[in-house]
Amino acid sequence: MRFYDRQQENSSSFSRTFFDETEISFSAIDCSLNGEKAIYASSELTSGRRLQSLLIETGATRASELRAKIGDDGYQVRIWNPNVAAATAFARGLHHTLEGDEIVITPAPFMAPGWNQRQYLSFWEELLRTRIKSAYFNDGWQFSNGCTFEFAVAVDHGMPTFDHEGQPLSAVDGLRLIEAAIDFCRGRLAEPTELIENVELVKTSLKRHDAAMVSRSLPR
Fold first, then answer.
1. 51, exposed or middle or buried, with CB in 10 Å at 0-12, 13-18, 19+?
2. pLDDT in tens, 145-184
């Protein structure tokens, strides 16, 4: 028997800003972190290879067009559910690979009704910059808009990055993977605008880091 039932308390409604909602979410995450930093497991969710394969299969050029063709249930069954399962399995496997000594965060279970994609990305960027010490990228991450953005954030922040096998993933190697993914998409799908934008973010960060290294090497 429950002492308090969430359904019975559901009569209250709240009006909050996006910033307030993120602060509430971060406070919940901080209850688990308890002052430590976590490992981040990046994996495709709303974009990536599974979506691209269906776009090619159905002849659709964009996700919105595909969703209109296969319906919300089809989207859930063929894209969202398999991607969430793969993302959570990746994070769980990573936790065991690291011998259970690290907290591993996956974005897959997180739902914030009403948020748009930019708001989700803003939330995960803040998490990466403030609460994460290294990021691991699942197989095929370079085809995902979200994963490539997270890689750009990690590079900009100077965070250690690793591939799905736990091997170091340098900024230059990651850049090559994203550029190859862009080449694959061109001619088969609509122009991969988000991937192209994220490549530019990585390049900008690399230039800034290179300039900082040169500046530090100059005699004072």
1. buried
2. 999 999 999 999 999 999 999 999 999 999 999 999 999 9
- Residues 46 and 146: beta-carbon distance below 8 Å: yes
Q: How far apart are CA 88 and CA 152, in angstroms?
A: 22
Q: Please state, as a whole number, how many other Cβ atoms lie within 10 Å of the Cβ of residue 177.
A: 19
CA distance 40 to 106: 6
DSSP-derived secondary structure letter, 142: G
CB atoms within 10 A of CB 137: 26
The whole-angstrom separation of Cα 183 and Cα 176 is: 11
| Calpha distance 140→76 (Å, rounded) | 20
pTM of the model: 0.91
Containing 132, the helix (H) or strand (E) segment is: strand 132-137
Pairing of strands 104-105, 38-42: parallel
Residue 171: strand, helix, or coil: helix
Residue ranges covered by each domain of the chain: 38-215
